[in-house]
Design goal:
Blueprint (H helix, E strand, L loop, with lengths): L9 E6 L4 H12 L6 E8 L2 E8 L2 H9 L7 E7 L14 E2 L5 E6 L5 H9 L10 H15 L6 H12 L4 E7 L6 E6 L4 E4 L4 E4 L11 E4 L4 E6 L2 E6 L9 E3 L15 H7 L1 H9 L19 H6 L2 E6 L1 H17 L4 E5 H7 L7 E7 L5 H12 L3 E6 L5 H5 L2 E4 L12 H19 L5 H22 L2 H11 L4 E6 L3 H16 L2 E6 L17 E5 L5 H12 L5 E6 L11 E5 L7 H19 L18
Parallel strand pairs: 15-16, 15-17, 17-18, 18-19, 20-21, 20-22, 22-23, 23-24
Antiparallel strand pairs: 1-4, 1-10, 2-3, 2-4, 5-6, 6-7, 7-8, 8-12, 9-10, 9-11, 11-14, 12-13
Helix pairs in contact: 1-2, 3-4, 4-5, 7-13, 7-14, 9-13, 9-16, 10-11, 13-14, 14-18, 15-18, 16-18
This protein binds 2-deoxy-2-amino glucitol-6-phosphate.
2-deoxy-2-amino glucitol-6-phosphate binds next to helix 9.
């Protein structure tokens, strides 16, 4: 039996003194980057549910809603990213219980879905969809029918239903018999409350509600909240009191707007000078010879005891870990291991007792990365997180960490978050290196290079038109290799990932010399190569690889450092970037590959901010 899981979806909820429908639709529009197979809303209007669901983009839902007069001051909404099975209106959320008493939006996976459905079917419940979420709606109605406590009947029915299920959830539920109340709960799928004046908001991430309030409360796992227009309460599923921690978002709604750019991705590429300033702000020592971090919660003496670092992450964040490995091993002389988070959690790696575990996650909600963090904690390792979302699950579950302060990254393809992560990796290399063998003088030079970095990035961004012209020449290729040595190898991987995920062009990243050991079989006039060749001391080696590729009639694009004009005679297209401190070359070289991928995708007419099959935060395994 094929069944449908809810998964990395967007959730919005409202209860207050305004019409809910527009608040829900605006929120879903902001959440659409999280998943956009289908979308829906439900309000309670004069004591009755008004439910509207549409397949495809949120725009389809908005158009349908504009043709109806959907009233109500309480409502929930959902954008869906299907993991299994068909995308259809009947599988879209919100789902109602069989007698229409409850309506639910759910993000996550109910693992004991089938047995629960059998249990309910045997008691006369019927279903219209194949989703696990509809089972939850009926299970709540089942417990509601049996609940004796009339005052808290709604809340208790949800609690008892959640005792019954195994799996993950971030959910919001409405009940026709309780039109002024919303119940919200979470386990592994992020849910936050937005606190307004005479109104309350619920969302799966803050971008959906930041225009209404910046005062938020994140639910923790196995917590449940009851919201009314004037108040909210949070307990555990067992009605135990919890410490409510209020956060204030550190960005504003205009940060989450496109501000005239054609795509969020392009805006975020051009935001990088400011994002890098934010990543570095307040993080240099008074004598400017090293970095400093307030959130590691480790003393210098404790950090001196660390004899190995392990970095775990997924996707682009995993590539940032590779850059961290090169930089920390070179400048701090500490052995570093890098693992895919999804691999680490099952690999049972033999680690020294003084290993410090880092996870990197822009969203702070990636389930594989969260699982790796939990595995490291289970083994007793101290865990630190580099993340962009204040109060995110990973930020709260780790023992300390470093916030990126990149602002919201809406484009599905990570850009400013990645360069902020590798900038922080460079600062970490400096910080740890200055606790070991790095001299005061080296530290001063390192900090100066970091301080100059935003201006350097502006200079590279100024070449965007040139890079656009180069991209147009390669936009119709089917394959491309990205090649680089040492710390440029991860940037080759990032270039390939960017191209794959937004232009759907097949592309691979390799260590440049490794190309001879197999991938060279792919080289032809149909498979161009993109070289990251910024390091002067191995430029001759890269030129040798370029010549091997050119001799097989492949076209070559190269990024090299200013002063390496000689490269021009060996390649078809050359992008020169400022010659910076070696530790910062990965950041500088990233800008051309981001712009190149962006313009290729644009020439190929791709949906750059919402690439097919992708979602911004992968909260499934
Ligand atoms: C990046 O371009 C991708 N969209 C994706 O690989 C992403 O980096 C990965 O899913 C990790 O996300 P996180 O940083 O939020 O954990």
């Amino acid at each position: 039996m094929l069944f449908i899981y809810a998964s990395m979806c967007g959730i919005i909820g409202y209860v207050g003194n305004k019409s809910a429908v527009q608040i829900l639709l605006d929120g879903l529009t902001r959440l659409e980057y999280r998943g956009y197979d289908s979308a829906g809303i439900a309000t309670i209007d004069n004591g009755q549910f008004r439910v509207l669901r549409k397949v495809g983009r949120v725009e389809n839902l908005i158009n349908a809603a504009n043709q109806r007069n959907i009233g109500g001051y309480i409502g929930i909404g959902h954008t869906r990213w299907a993991t299994h099975g068909v995308v259809s209106e009947k599988n879209a959320h919100p789902h109602c219980s069989v007698h229409g008493l409850f309506s639910i939006v759910h993000n996550g996976v109910i693992e004991n879905y089938e047995s629960t459905k059998e249990f309910l079917l045997s008691r006369g419940f019927t279903f219209e969809s194949e989703t696990d979420s509809e089972v939850l709606a009926n299970l709540i109605e089942y417990h509601f029918n049996k609940e004796q406590d009339s005052e808290n009947k709604f809340l208790k029915s949800v609690q008892k239903a959640l005792f019954h299920v195994r799996g993950t959830y971030g959910l919001a539920v409405l009940c026709e018999d309780y039109p002024g109340e919303m119940i919200v709960a979470r386990k592994s799928s992020p849910i936050l409350l937005g606190i307004g004046s005479g109104e309350m908001f619920v969302a799966s991430d803050a971008s959906a509600i930041v225009q209404h309030t910046r005062d938020i409360v994140y639910l923790n796992d196995r917590e449940i909240a009851r919201l009314t227009p004037l108040d909210f309460s949070i307990t555990t599923l067992h009605n135990e009191n919890v410490d409510v921690v209020k956060c204030e978002l550190d960005w504003h709604v205009e940060d989450a707007n496109r501000e005239g750019y054609e795509h969020y991705m392009l805006k975020e590429i051009f935001e990088q000078p400011r994002a890098l300033e934010n990543a570095m702000r307040g993080r240099f020592s008074d004598d400017l010879s090293t970095a400093k971090f307030g959130g590691l919660r480790m003393t210098t003496r404790e950090l001196r005891q660390v004899d190995r670092l392990l970095f775990c992450a997924c996707g682009t964040a995993w590539i940032a870990c590779l850059v961290a490995e090169y930089l920390i091993e070179k400048y701090a002389r500490i052995p570093v291991e890098v693992e895919y988070a999804s691999e680490f959690r099952y690999r049972n790696s033999p680690l020294d007792k003084n290993t410090l575990v880092f996870v990197i996650s822009q969203s702070g909600e990636t389930l594989d990365t969260m699982a790796a963090l939990q595995e490291a904690k289970r083994k007793g390792f101290r865990t630190l997180a580099i993340t962009n979302v204040v109060g995110s699950t990973i930020a709260r579950e780790s023992d300390g960490g470093i916030y990126q302060h990149s602002g919201p990254e809406i484009g599905v393809a990570s850009t400013k978050a990645f360069t902020a992560q590798i900038c922080i990796a460079a600062m970490l290399a400096l910080y740890l290196g200055r606790m070991r063998d790095m001299s005061f003088e080296e530290g001063i030079l390192f900090v100066k290079a970091l301080d100059d970095l935003p201006g350097i990035i502006e200079r590279v961004l100024a070449q965007s038109e040139k890079i656009e012209k180069i991209a147009e020449k390669y936009a119709q290729c089917d394959d491309m290799l990205f090649l680089g040595r040492q710390a440029m190898f991860p940037i080759a991987l990032e270039g390939a990932l960017k191209l794959k995920e937004i232009s759907y062009m097949h592309s691979e990243g390799y260590p440049a010399a490794e190309m001879k050991h197999g991938p060279i079989a792919l080289i032809s006039e149909k498979c161009p190569c993109f070289f990251l060749a910024t390091q002067g001391h191995i430029l001759a080696k890269n030129i040798a690889n370029i010549q091997e590729v050119r001799s097989r009639h492949a076209r070559v694009i190269a990024v090299a450092a200013e002063g390496s004009e000689l490269v021009d005679k060996f390649v078809d297209d050359l992008i020169l970037v400022p010659d910076v401190h070696p530790a910062l070359q990965p950041i500088v070289a990233t800008i051309p590959v981001q712009l190149f991928a962006y313009y290729i995708a644009k020439f190929r007419g791709c949906d750059i901010d919402k690439p097919r099959n992708l979602a911004k935060s992968v909260t499934v395994e």
